[in-house]
Design brief:
By secondary structure, this protein is an all-alpha fold. The protein is 62% helix and 0% strand. It is built from seven helices and no strands. The two termini are 29 Å apart.
């Protein structure tokens, strides 16, 4: 491995490309360089948190807006848009924690799953964030 791939083995982008590939995941790295597995795993988790956030933002933009009569202050505050009160900052933090928690669970399931040579939705646990990360890190860009 060292002779053939040499310095490429230290590149985080390449490590993530293999880690998000359903055939390799982290198994190759555990055998070749187990010392950096925690760093790559954390990078995977961070990438997954970001991808889940992007998925949530796309999903939220598709939801219809809720109209609330201004005569009911309780309901108006309940459906107040994000970013307009101190309470929404807490919601944003909770959302980040929730995405982190989901990413951790998804990552454990992904890494403990059976390696598969195909690229079906089932292979990626039917999770668009995992599919997106596979594509992001494994698609070459030609100039």
């Amino acid at each position: 491995m060292e002779k053939k791939f040499g310095p490429l083995m230290d590149n985080l982008e390449y490590q993530l490309a293999a880690a998000f590939h359903p055939r390799f995941r982290l198994m190759w790295l555990e055998k070749c360089n187990p010392d950096i597995v925690p760093r790559v795993r954390l990078a995977m988790e961070d990438a997954l948190v970001d991808a889940l956030g992007d998925s949530a933002a796309e999903g939220n933009s598709m939801e219809p807006s809720i109209q609330v009569e201004e005569a009911d202050p309780f309901m108006a505050e309940l459906f107040q848009p994000s970013g307009s009160s101190g309470r929404s900052r807490m919601t944003s933090r909770d959302s980040q924690r929730s995405r982190r928690s989901k990413a951790q669970g998804l990552l454990v399931t992904w890494l403990n799953g059976v390696t598969m040579p195909d690229f079906s939705n089932e292979t990626f646990l039917h999770e668009t964030a995992l599919i997106g990360l596979f594509v992001k890190y494994n698609t070459p860009i030609v100039a």
